[in-house]
Every structure is written in C-alpha cells, then in structure tokens.
Specification:
The protein is α+β, with helices and mostly antiparallel strands. The protein has a single domain, classed as 2-Layer Sandwich (Alpha-Beta Plaits). Helix content is 19%, strand content 36%. It is built from two helices and six strands, in the order βαββββαβ. The strands form two sheets. The protein has a four-stranded antiparallel β-sheet with strand order 2-5-1-6, covered by helices on one side. β3 and β4 form a beta hairpin. The longest helix is centred in the middle third of the chain and has 12 residues. The two termini are 13 Å apart.
Length: 118
C-alpha cells in the first residue's frame, strides 16, 4: 500500500477529482492549503504590490494498493498539468498497515468493498 500526496492548483481540483473517479479511485481526502513556491514575484493591482510567492493550493491524500499507483499518478498528472510553473507536486510514501474500523479488516482488504475490487 502507498499514500499518494498531491499538491495541485486549486483551479484544477474538479478536473483531478473527475480523472480519479474515471480511474476507479473513489475515496480521498483533500484540504485547501497555502505554500511558498520557487517563483518570487510581486504583482501590482491598483497601485498596491502583492507578494505572489504564497500560493493557494489543494492537497490530496489517497491511499491505494500497489497495483493502483500508476493509474492514480497518471490521472493526477494528466488532469492537473497546465504546463506553467506552479502545477504542483506528487509524493508517494509507504503505508505499513491499514484497518477498517467498522469491520476490523486490515491490509488491502480495508481499502475496497468486497465485490467491487479496484
């Protein structure tokens, strides 16, 4: 099992959510976050300079079985990319164990509903 963390543009969230659904990924958590990127520039609006280095993003956390890593990453890459600086990052981390609290199932079985395997 792996945990996929993706930090994407807020404006691409709906496209990424749809792409994940089409890839069979039906559950993930997300948060609106702010971060500091490499691009440092100021923008002027009505005579006031605004620092644009602090950027609004959405962070996704998805736990997947090893066999679903590739299609999950490809769904995010394909739907979140604009080709501009600031498209985001994807991180993959190992998960040692997981449990479904309701049933006590553990491991891969805790990540999907029986009869509906993805």
């Amino acid at each position: 099992m792996k945990k996929i963390e993706a930090i994407i543009r807020k404006s691409k969230f709906e496209e990424v959510k749809e792409a994940l659904s089409e890839a069979g990924i039906e559950f993930f958590s997300f948060w609106d976050v702010r971060g500091v990127g490499q691009a440092r520039e100021g923008r002027v609006y009505r005579g006031v300079v605004y620092d644009t280095s602090s950027i609004e993003r959405t962070k996704l956390e998805i736990i997947v079985r090893d066999k679903n890593i590739g299609k999950t990453v490809q769904a995010i890459l394909g739907s979140a990319r604009t080709g501009e600086i600031g498209d985001g990052k994807i991180f993959i981390l190992p998960i040692e164990e997981s449990y479904r609290i309701r049933t006590g199932e553990s491991g891969d079985e805790s990540l999907y509903i029986k009869g509906k395997e993805v």
